[in-house]
Amino acid sequence: MTSNMRPLNSKKDVPKGSPARPGHIDSADCGQHAKNESCMPCNDLQQESDREQAGDTLDDLFFFNDEEDDDIDWEPSARLAENRWFCLNCTMPNLDEVKHCLNCHELKGSEVAAGYDVFKTHIARAALVSADTAPVLVSTAIGFDERMLLHSEMEMKPNPHPERPNRLRAIAASLAAAGIFPSKCALVPPREITKEELVMVHTSDHVESVEQTKNMLYSYFTSDTYANGHSACAAKLAAGLCADLASLIVSGRVRNGFALVRPPGHHAGVKQAMGFCLHNNAAVAALAAQKAGAKKVLIVDWDVHHGNGTQEIFEGNKSVLYISLHRHEDGSFYPGTGAADEVGDLDGKGFSVNIPWSCGGVGDNDYIFAFQHVVLPIATEFAPDITIISAGFDAARGDPLGCCDVTPAGYSQMTSMLTACSEGKLLVILEGGYNLRSISSSATEVVKVLLGHGPSYGTDAAAPSKEGMQTVLQVLDIQQKYWPVLVPIFASLQVQAQQGPTSSNYVNAENMLKRRMLTGGPGPVWWKWGSKRLLYEVLFEGRRPRKSKAKGK
Known catalytic residue: 267? Predict the structure, then answer.
């Protein structure tokens, strides 16, 4: 097993079948749940809560580039000085004498998910909604089960893995603190998805490879995608909750829902687990919605990484429209897929819509501008019966992997804009997001919109950055062939763009974020120098900054 996380460079590099690689003994030898068909919490949940999570190195999750040969064998964990601490909020390293995280400004040792116990005490009192309960319309339902917290990296490593159980705890604590749960939301009873449901999305070999991880203490599908003895159960619970929420929404029993689930899913393809994802929760939910009566399903993926798995699963299916907004940088940003000209195959041409940002630092205005001019016109023309949001919050301000600038108000606005697409039938599924304060505040604002609260601000002042305008024009130019509603929008924006980059309507996304970072605003410290490795090289090794060759920096 290698400790260097080298992301895949292009779609052709995506593994076609990735069985888990065992990391230790069979569970029968270690006393775990060898004879159980599915994992149970027992005492493991408390043990997991009490220990610091271990994980993989973050090298090259931000960028990858074939030209950076000197990065291939870079293992910062092997060279870091011992006098360091890792932020509990964003997982980034800091020198021991530093009291506030240089990435997110969190105080050393602060516990972000401390309010989870309040949420936990409310679970037993929450109203339940399922196909078997009385037919009373519920406004918003939440999908959650504590057993998903047992999915964690078991191999002890110097630095914590960003996809960790505290992600769910932080969001749950925020929902309880805001008075949203349990007083304003119902809870969906958990169930594990069946193999018959999973093979509608994945190959039977893939389903079996995930299932086999329950017989191992720990294992890896890729260098960044771990599993332990509880991961198969957690992945099936996540998919089952998403499927049941989708069915309840389509049937009219629930108006909308939020799936507070992990492991995430949108990188999981037909044959492979990757990018922290085991089963594709959004894809499972889409097929469950269609089984419940939905003819057309819209999936909007605003995770900062392209959902290569979801696109692969539906790229030839015109009954599922997949729209993704993500960093791309000409394929240099993980996972390398999601270019604007990836539009789907065969009957599904035009039903994959990719909005690939050309740089980091993208914020609210660019996202809302893209929603106004691409997402909503296409979605309205498509007229879905249900809208599913693959809600990764790693484009949020201060995220250690996304390096973008979307605020909770921005996520609130995007959610509000999507509520009209399918008469309010909306399912929000958690994907990525690794700054605990960012994801908890963003998710809370999204759930408030589901409950009927208005968005945090209006859409009138959504002036894009120069890079944002260029990306939207590129997408419109390609997609107008499939969606005639875009033709006049493209013509109008072309005229606007001809005013030139000096127009007061344009800002530079990266420069704007760098200026804010330099003045002490929250966010990744490496924006100050423009290189992903300087946090390690300058702080821990005393080396002078080197100019990065990574695209978009």
Answer: yes
